């Protein structure tokens, strides 16, 4: 591959003036130096900066802001200091209303890149803003480590495995942050052995806290590297005494040396098996590993918009694919004839069945497995489906599922996406059989480049 002559002459550390023209699909600023594309994190369109090269590639450059010569009108002058320290605040330097516009642009950029059929004619509605722009996250996974004899608990420094000790986090709810700091103090007092990345010793690796907004309760999960959890009884006693909001304490055992990934075994140590949350007037139980949208207050809005896109009626037999604990299907159950939910995580399906019962929903059936395998089985068994909602993880839809959706097209398909890139890629195939009516971006993650998108599709 021949090297671009321009990048050949450049090296890491070189600096040059740069005007930022647009925003990239990962939320970074994009400029051009002698026709070569330059990606600069934390830079905003209309910024004029001095850029310092951090990486040289054949066809593009990575840089960082050395100095801002002229700040863009989109810049937020009151960005929190922490934004330069930890992840999760990649857009905090941008005014909120501009964040919403840039999210629509990120969606457009992704469509531009993958070019699904007629993408330039798609109607992209304005991004729906979040009720709360700060303190909206209902869950946090805090790694805890012993480094040079001191205990740190917080989040990793952007792009590294270096742990920043956090006392505050603008996007996290107060109750969660206060509980985290109290628990860290207890761990120190009780001298519970904490993971030490240097010599791979210690037991406790992560503290996971989930908060119910409706009921003001906390679900705590300790992720440990061995089944043995030293001094767990003293710890539980102190938590009960000092953090009355805690209603549930579990332990998840992860023997792998991957810091901070969930292991297969979760056991309840004390309190309720579930945390309860209210979504659009329905009650849901969540076990520690179950998926719940991170922005509780905005989830009501999201599901209203999903319902609006599907236009459910009493003749509809709805497939809720990647159903999690049943949230979308259950909130629509009274508007349709029947709901089938499919989810790969067995505990989530147990939760979904319990949630259907809890909300007196009698027209829903749930199946464990991957949607691309279970859905064709249902069709083989003579079950009919004429409306589908898919809400896949960041990796998008499984290829085999797309094939099934094309082979057995339904009248109405709603795609709820948390990743514009995989969405655009999936639309390339789906548009063979479905027409895109509109895309509705929704901001579930203020201060970050993440954007949730609802796509309304109908059969061609």
From TrEMBL:
Binding site for S-adenosyl-L-methionine: 293, 322, 343, 391
Keyword Lipid metabolism: no
Recorded superkingdom: Bacteria
Record's keyword terms, sorted: Methyltransferase, S-adenosyl-L-methionine, Transferase
Keyword Chaperone included in the entry's annotation: no
Classification via CDD domains: AdoMet_MTases
Any GO BP: rRNA base methylation
Domain TRAM: 9-67
Pfam families referenced in this protein's UniProt entry, alphabetically: TRAM, tRNA_U5-meth_tr
GO MF terms held by the record: rRNA (uridine-C5-)-methyltransferase activity
TM stretches of this protein: none
SUPFAM superfamilies tied to this protein: Nucleic acid-binding proteins, S-adenosyl-L-methionine-dependent methyltransferases
Active site, per annotation: 418, 418 (nucleophile)
PANTHER family with a match to the protein in the record: PTHR11061:SF45, RNA M5U METHYLTRANSFERASE
Family statement: Belongs to the class I-like SAM-binding methyltransferase superfamily. RNA M5U methyltransferase family.
Record's protein name: RNA methyltransferase
Organism of origin: Companilactobacillus crustorum
